[in-house]
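Entry 14. Structure prediction run on the chain below.
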Amino acid sequence: MAGPDSPGKTVVDSGNSGGGGAMVVHQRVVRDTGRAWPILTRTNYADWALPMQVLLEACQLWVAVNDRTPERETDRTAMECLLRSVPPEMVSTLAVKPTAKDAWGTIKTMRLGVARVREAKVTSLRRQYEAIKFNDGEGIDDFGMRLSSLVTQLELLGDKIGEPAVIRKFLSVIPKAYSQMACAIETLVDLNTL
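Output returned:
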C-alpha cells in the first residue's frame, strides 16, 4: 500500500473462486484541510503565525513554506490553507504568488513591514519589556501571559530573549507579597539551567 500522501494501488481479490480474477483498486489519501484556520487581521500577526505554523505542520504542509522545492500538490494545498486564513483583501495578492513559501513571505512583510518598520516595532516592544510591571490586582498567571506574549512578539521580529532573562525579569517585578518566594527561587535554582 502507498504512503499516506501518495497515490498507490492495492490488489484485492474479487471474490471469484474459479477465475483467479484480481482487481486493482487505485486509492489516494487526501489531506483534510477542512479544519478551522486562524484568521489574520491587521494587528494579530504574532498571534496568527505560530498557530498557523503548527496547523500546517499537523497537516504535513509546513514543508511547502519551509522548503523551496515541495511537491506541487503539497504546495497548492498549503497555499489553499493560507488563502483561507487571510482577509479577503489579501487573497488576490497572495493567489498569484508562485509558491506557498512566497505567499508566507508576502504575508510576513505586509504585516511586519520592511526592515526599518520592524526595527521600530522591536524598539517599541523592547521598551515595553523593560518597563513591564504588574498592574494593580493583576494575578501572576495574567502577568505571565502578558510577559510571554511580549517576548513572543519580539522573537517573531527576530529579537530573541533567552528564557533565563525572562525568568529574571519576572522575578524582578513580582509583587512584594511574593518577594520571599522570588528570593528563594533565585537562591536555590540555577536559572541558566531551566
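Strands lie at 8-13, 22-27.
Filed with the rest of this week's runs.
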